[in-house]
Design goal:
Helix content of chain B: over 70%
Mean pLDDT of chain B: 86
Shape of chain B: globular
Distance between the termini of chain A: 21 Å
Order of helices and strands of chain A: HHHHHHHHHHHHH
Largest interface: A-B, 53 and 65 residues
Oligomer: heterodimer
Order of helices and strands of chain B: HHHHHHHHHHHHHH
Structural class of chain B: mainly alpha
Largest sheet of chain B: none
Low-confidence stretches of chain B: none
Helix content of chain A: over 70%
Strand content of chain A: under 5%
Number of strands of chain A: 0
Strand content of chain B: under 5%
Number of helices of chain B: 14
Amino acid sequence: MTASDATTEEPLDIAELEEELEIADARQSPWRLTVVRLFRHRLFRWGMFLFGIIIIAGLLAPLLTDADPNKITMRAKFLTPSSSHLFGTDNFGRSLWSRVLWGAQLSLIIGASVVGLNAIFGTLLGAVSGYFRRLDNPLMRMNDALMAFPAILLAIAVTAVLGPSTINVILALSIVYIPRTARIVRASVIVLRELEYVQAAIAAGAGHTRILCRHIMPNALAPLIVQLSFLFAYAVLAEATLSFLGLGAVPPTPTWGNIMAEGRQYMVEAPWIISIPGVALMITVMGLNLLGDGLRDVLDPRLRIQQ
Amino acid sequence: MAGIIVRRLLGALPVLLLVSLITFGLLRLIPGDPSSVIGGPSATAEQLAQIRANLGLDEPLPMQLVHWYEGLLRGDLGRSLLLGQPVVQATFQRLPVTLGLAFYALIITLIAGLASGIIAALRQNTWIDQLSMMTAMLGISVPNFFLGLLGIIFFAVKLGWLPTGGYVPFSQDPWQWFRSVTMPAVSLAMLQMGLLARITRSTMLEVLRQDYIRTARAKGLPGRQVVVKHALANALIPITTIIGIIVSLLISGSVVIELLFSIPGIGQLLTQAVLNRDYPMVQGGLLITTVFLVLVNIFVDILYAFLDPRVRYDSK
């Protein structure tokens, strides 16, 4: 999946821009302007709202839930959502409110870990292969090979080898997505490497590390940040898919995927068991996609001007 | 044209070589001894040795690699531990089922994705545009298995229009095949449809701003002709490049969809193989599917070169 699809920003308005510039005082960093623009982006705000709900749910799961997500109460099974059981209960009488909130925490941990590993290793791989021409070919061939595998199938095969667990899901998804991140970083580095200010830095005698870290990478950040926000969405979705297939965190640890897999048998009598985690998943992914769209519209000026 | 085809095929060789090497390495990455994982805790020493011998794990690594490539050249990827039949045979039995499903989903993706993207671009910033972009956003955000589950509840259980699952081969009864794969194909297509609609819209918007479109309009060509002959024809070229990605996503997505609707395709085969630690099957199924995707991408590349004559000169 690439990030280069529809832009949703309104046409560029000069008056509005001037106003923005006024707000972001000239002496202050361009980051301030970026933040102002992001907050003006309607869909970005929606994304923050949706993803914010999930972050709050995940962070506050220990405070917001009093029931143990794995506590079995057989006489309380299949309770419909009500004031005493906000999301109802499942086939073992476990509180879905607890399970879904703890599931949110796990989804966020896995998503954030995959994003973190991608930010480190994807960047490293992409920067090195874009900057050092000699390494480019071998590294990118390896990258192409890893990207040739269908994402979920590779993730399944890797978890098959490592065994199902939370850590292994993170590893499997990182192996799947790091080549994709590296590719995006490499694309920016290759362009930046040839620019005059970089040539000037080389002429001034700057070392490779300094050039990469101080001159090239800061300018390659925008597409990377956009990619990472979409990646978060893919990772959450892929994690749910793996645990739906029985290859994620081992039950009874609640994940949205395995709650839905268990609830599948009872989906007609107790549709809330699959619907609540399903909707939670949708809110998370949509929130992240909207954040990604907003970041792309604001950070990637080429696409903004086109609109 | 023939030159391009040959070059693309040759260009894919290193990737194919690495893909097969990674697949080979996968089995060797299993922590500890794969034979004890397969044999279970009650297996005797002889049984373990037997399993190792069957998998070829009793040989030194370089020999294993040689045998792996020898096998590949002969089209032999070992035997499935679970099914007892050759991996290649098992894979090719299931592959058409998945490809049929993916092809159906691809048709839905192309028709619905292109149409909504084009209409959204032509009616930019109207409610039609917003509606179609909201639908696309939903498509890329709703997990396909959740969509499938909701589909089963409404269209199969409540309304009884479609079966809840199961599969009828096309050769046996085309109409029943159509009924059995419609819901899976639609749930599978939603994600790619959303992606395609978004990309089509932005590509169309870009093309519609070009000077030659203005010229075409200025010289008085009817709007329909400008859109179809001038704008769409040029917008389709970059869109072609993502068909490879779409097919890859469809194959990925079909894994969970096949499980949900009990469709005996490659996804179901691999999931079962993984859950039963049938490593040769996992290895072989993964390799064959990936090689197929590499071929699809080569085909797309060639198609691209065919549609856009500029590509023939400047790229390698």
